[in-house]
Amino acid sequence: MKIQISDSACDDLNEAQLFYESQCEGLGSYFQESIFADIDSLKFYAGIHFMAFGKYRLLSKRFPYAIYYTIKSDTVIVSAVLDCRKNLELIKKRLK
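The chain above was modelled as a monomer; its predicted structure follows.
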């Protein structure tokens, strides 16, 4: 299975990485490594996750983030990486 990360998901990742790096030096890099490990797991486990707002949702193992994705033929398309602590209405709006 191939993995494709949308531009908006990359923006989400960069924004979160900057936030965590501002909290503690090196934490931003650790955040990205952790999230990319979660995304890589989709090569094997895509499609088994709970669906929310019309997309599959993988919860990160180490950070309060959700990875939203869809599957088209043999490709996993990551459409968003969002902070679970945000208002639910903002998450719904972002995913539409």
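The chain has one domain: 2-95.
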